[in-house]
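Appendix B, Record 12. Input sequence as logged:
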Amino acid sequence: LDGVSFVSHAIWADNWYLIAKDECEAKEMVRSLTAAITRKGFRWKPSSLECLSSLMVDAPLEFQCDIAENHACHVKAVENLIALGVLLDRSGSTEASFGYRLSQADRSLYKHARQLSNANAGIGRRLEAFMTTSAQSLLYNSCGWHLTEHLLHRIKRWENNKLRKVFHLRRAPDEGRGAH
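Logged structural output:
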């Protein structure tokens, strides 16, 4: 982290993600990065240091880090954090990430509701709008998900439900809710 070119780009970074194997390594990484940005005239926003620990311990990893003489920072533990549009949690759960993407897709659907429900736009255009907004939002960064039959079923159920709403369709009388 002592390289000048590396730190010159730090001023545009909104978030830093440090991956450490233990508390000692995490503290050293925070110290090292802090020293490098301090030399450039920058400081951490005190409330911005968070730690997501995957250690299976009773209490999440939280620590004080001495970053300079007479200056310490508190690194608070969090249960989850959002990184690059993905919700990460302590257990690495696909369920947490999927739930977050599902809420983002619903927000996207609501945001584009007028365009999606415009009957004058035609079926093809509305379907394309759905696939390029809400469906894409749901599947964003899904490559890290552990795909199971249950998860695939939930994705299909969400898609079918939303398409019914977009096209104002009702279920057929013989199409039961638990049938698929």
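The first strand starts at residue 50 and ends at 51.
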